[in-house]
Design brief:
8-stranded mixed beta sheet, binds iron/sulfur cluster, Rossmann fold, 10 helices, 328 residues, alpha/beta, 4-stranded antiparallel beta sheet
Length: 328
C-alpha cells in the first residue's frame, strides 16, 4: 500500500464570531461559523471542500491559515502545532501556506506593475539574493504559469481575468509554498478559462508537489481535481470520503440532495433531483441535534435532540454524520 505523509491535521476546530450591537458596539450575540471541524490532508493531495454559500468553507480556509483566530481546536501543519503561533512565528509559516482568492482583480494592487507584484514577496521573504537572482525567480514564476515576459511591465487592469489569476498563482508560488488554499479560485472566470486554470493547478501540483485545499461550489470541478471531498453544512463537515467514492455513493441526505443537482450528459449517471424544503437556518440560532434535521426528509424524533458525530462507514476513509447512514 502506498505510504502517504500527512501535511495538515485539523482537530475539532471551532470559530465563533461576535455580533456587535449596531450602535453601542458591545457583543449581543455570537455566530458559530465552524463547529468541531476535523480532517487530515496528505502531502501532494487535494481536498475539495463543498457546500452552499455561507456554510463556512471560506472561514475554514482562512482559519487554517490563521487569517482568523480559531476559537478552539488544533491546527497541525507539517508536524507543527500552529494554533497559537505568534504573529512572528506565523510569518515564517506563511511562506509554506498561501491562498489564491476568488477575484484576481481585487487581489492585485492596481498601482503596481506585475514585476513589482511578483518581486514584493520574493524580497519580503528573502527568497532570492540580489537583483539578478530575483529576476531569475520572476522569469521562473512566469514560466510556471505560462505567461510571456511582456506582462511584467503591464498593470493588472491591462490583463484578462485568466492572466490576472495566473499572476495571483505566480505570486503565491513566489515564496515556495507546500500548501495552497484555493478559495473559489476559478469562480469569477469564464468557463473556458476555468478549464485552463484547473489544468494549470493540476500540472503545478505534479511538478512542485503542492497540496491544495480547494474550496468550490462547483461540484463538477471538484470531482475533476480532488482526491478527497468534504461536504460542509452550517459550519460542520457532514460527510467526507475519497472523491470517487462520494460521487458514486453520496450517503448523507444533504450530500445526496447537493449531488442530485449536478447536471450530467450521461443518462446512466443521472440522479433523481432532490429539492430541499425550507431555508438554511441562521447560524445565530442553530437547530438542536442534527443541524440538518429541519430540512431532512429522513429525520425522526431523535434527530432533533441528538447530534450525530462524524463516523466511519463502508469504504476506507468514508465518514458520515448521520444517525441513519445508508449507501445506495
Ligand atoms: Fe437526517 Fe437525522 Fe441523518 Fe440528520 S441525523 S441527516 S436529520 S436522518
Amino acid at each position: 500500500m502506498e505510504h502517504k505523509e500527512i501535511l495538515l491535521e485539523v482537530h475539532r476546530l471551532c470559530k465563533t464570531f461576535p455580533v456587535p450591537h449596531r450602535l453601542l458596539g458591545h457583543t449581543i450575540a455570537k455566530v458559530s461559523a465552524l463547529h468541531n471541524v476535523s480532517f487530515t490532508l496528505y502531502k501532494g493531495e487535494t481536498l475539495g471542500l463543498v457546500g452552499e454559500s455561507g456554510c463556512g468553507k471560506t472561514t475554514l480556509g482562512r482559519t487554517i491559515l490563521r487569517l482568523f483566530e480559531p476559537t478552539s481546536g488544533r491546527i497541525i501543519f507539517d508536524g507543527i502545532d500552529i494554533t497559537h503561533c505568534s504573529a512572528c512565528q506565523m510569518r515564517t509559516m506563511r511562506k509554506k501556506m498561501q491562498i489564491i482568492f476568488q477575484d484576481p482583480y481585487a487581489a492585485l494592487n492596481p498601482r503596481m506593475a506585475i514585476q513589482q507584484i511578483l518581486e514584493e514577496p520574493i524580497q519580503i521573504h528573502h527568497i532570492a539574493n540580489g537583483k539578478v537572482a530575483s529576476a531569475k525567480r520572476i522569469y521562473q514564476l512566469l514560466d510556471y504559469v505560462q505567461l510571456p515576459s511582456t506582462v511584467l511591465y503591464k498593470y493588472p487592469h491591462e490583463l484578462s481575468g485568466g492572466q490576472r489569476q495566473r499572476i495571483c498563482i505566480a505570486r503565491a508560488l513566489a515564496v515556495e509554498p507546500t500548501f495552497i488554499v484555493c478559495d473559489e479560485a476559478i469562480a469569477a472566470l469564464d468557463v473556458s478559462v476555468q478549464a485552463q486554470i484547473i489544468n494549470l493547478l493540476m500540472d503545478l501540483q505534479k511538478e512542485l508537489g503542492l497540496t491544495y485545499l480547494f474550496i468550490s461550489h462547483d461540484l463538477r470541478v471538484v470531482e475533476f481535481i480532488a482526491d478527497q471531498v468534504a461536504v460542509m453544512y452550517l459550519g460542520k463537515i457532514v460527510e467526507a470520503a475519497p472523491a470517487a467514492e462520494i460521487y458514486k455513493s453520496p450517503t448523507h441526505p444533504y450530500t445526496k440532495a447537493l449531488f442530485s443537482a449536478i447536471p450530467t450528459m450521461d443518462p446512466s449517471k443521472s440522479r433523481e433531483r432532490i429539492i430541499l424544503q425550507g431555508d438554511i437556518p441562521s447560524p445565530r440560532n442553530l437547530p438542536t441535534g442534527c443541524c440538518f434535521h429541519p430540512r431532512c426528509w429522513k429525520a425522526v424524533e431523535k434527530c432533533s435532540y441528538i447530534q450525530p458525530e462524524l463516523a466511519k462507514i463502508g469504504g476506507e476513509n468514508h465518514q458520515v454524520a448521520c444517525h441513519f447512514p445508508e449507501i445506495d
